[in-house]
Design brief:
Elements lengths: L3 E12 L2 E12 L3 E5 L6 H8 L7 E6 L2 E2 L4 H5 L2 E4 L11 H11 L4 H14 L15 H12 L6 E5 L7 H18 L2 E6 L2 H7 L2 E6 L2 E6 L1 H8 L4 E5 L5 H10 L5 E2 L3 E5 L4 H15 L5 E5 L3 H9 L24
Parallel strand pairs: 3-8, 3-9, 6-7, 7-8
Antiparallel strand pairs: 1-2, 1-4, 4-5, 9-10, 11-13, 11-14, 12-13
The structure holds adenosine-5'-triphosphate and magnesium ion.
Adenosine-5'-triphosphate binds next to strand 2 and helix 1.
């Protein structure tokens, strides 16, 4: 038996002239919580859809729980639970009825169905809402109900496409603890996509960062942080005309500047406060006019800036995978 729950070999998916997945290869080990992290249009949903056998790859192959998805999709699909990017609970049905329909679809025998529903509702912490209409649920509750649904046929692998996008922090942490339980107590391997570095960081054993269809980094959260070499980020805003002068001052105090449209940023390294002090002194001495100076923890944008040399962006493809507001956008 392979130790991998998922193997992705040189995967390519083209939509016309657009390459949504561009020669991606990586494995997910059994028992892992793996996060695929990337901005809008990075190719996350496309990858998930290929793993589910819903889309055919242009080239390359995916092995799910040891089964070649293209050769034996029905067998492979039986081993996977899915929570899609768009919420798909039936609003007119109760939580229990939603699960019941799904259980029947998966041909769970009636004798076992009640027990399975009890188990799923309990896991998702929705027992007291079993007879309430799903349409009345909050976004977080709907997400938990969908996760419960995805577990009804006892899959070995759970795929979740942006399970917490749009949820507030309380609901997000609840989903995280649900996923940890599913993973630890019930031995389910988890692959989730996310736009949040924090989520990948807190929840995932390993993270793959995708951008423009390419896998640009892969590793544990610690490895990735080491890779980007950031403890904190200093940023100095100034008029466009002065940005190069600001960057020169950064270099004087041994900071590696990156010049953006209206600011200069740099990772601080270990002595963050000392670096900020040195930078303020050097800027004052050089008499370069600036409008703001600040320090912050690295955000996902900083990781991307470091790895790709460009800021967060919108997609340019004609097709937009989802109409929901992307939290990613407009951060800078
Ligand atoms: N069926 C399709 N036809 C044409 N283009 C598509 C199709 N599906 C996706 N795309 C394009 O492929 C690229 C990757 O899209 P995908 O939905 O996989 O990104 P994503 O990482 O899931 O983004 P988001 O965070 O917005 O969900 C985008 O440029 C998108 O417009
Ligand atoms: Mg998507």
């Amino acid at each position: 038996m392979s130790e991998n729950a998922i193997e992705i070999h040189d995967l390519v998916k083209k939509f016309g002239t657009l390459t949504a997945v561009n020669h991606v290869s990586f494995n997910i080990k059994k028992g892992e919580i793996f996060g695929l992290l990337g901005p809008n249009g990075a190719g996350k949903t496309t990858t998930i859809n290929i793993l589910l056998g819903l889309l055919q790859p242009t080239s390359g192959k995916v092995i799910v729980e040891g089964i070649d998805m293209q050769k034996n999709p029905v067998l492979a699909k039986g081993k996977v639970g899915i929570v899609t990017q768009e919420t798909v609970v039936e609003p007119e049905l109760t939580a229990e009825q939603n699960l019941m329909i799904f259980g029947r679809l998966y041909q769970i025998p009636s004798s076992e169905l009640k027990e399975d529903i009890d188990f799923a509702l309990d896991l998702a912490d929705l027992k007291e809402f079993r007879n309430k209409l799903a349409g009345t649920f909050s976004g977080g509750m709907k997400r938990r109900l969908e996760t419960a649904k995805a577990l009804m046929h006892a899959p070995e692998l759970l795929l979740l496409d942006e399970p917490t996008t749009g949820l507030d922090i309380q609901n997000r942490t609840r989903i995280w603890s649900l996923l940890r339980d599913i993973n630890k107590k019930h031995n389910v391997t988890i692959l989730l996509t996310t736009q949040y570095l924090e989520e990948a960081d807190q929840l995932c054993n390993r993270i793959g960062i995708v951008d423009h269809g390419k896998l640009i980094a892969l590793g544990t959260p610690t490895e990735l942080r080491q890779k980007i070499g950031m403890s904190n980020v200093i940023e100095v805003s100034a008029d466009k005309d002065n940005l190069q002068k600001v960057a020169a001052v950064f270099k004087k105090v041994d900071l590696e500047p990156q010049v953006l449209t209206n600011k200069v940023i740099a990772p601080t390294g270990s002595n963050a406060v000392g670096k900020v002090e040195a930078l303020i002194k050097a800027i004052t001495a050089a008499k370069v006019p600036i409008s703001n100076i600040s320090m912050h923890e690295p955000t996902i944008d900083d990781v991307f800036l470091k790895l790709t040399g460009s800021g967060a962006r919108d997609t340019t493809g004609e097709y937009q995978g989802s109409a929901r507001t992307a939290l990613w956008r407009g951060r800078r």
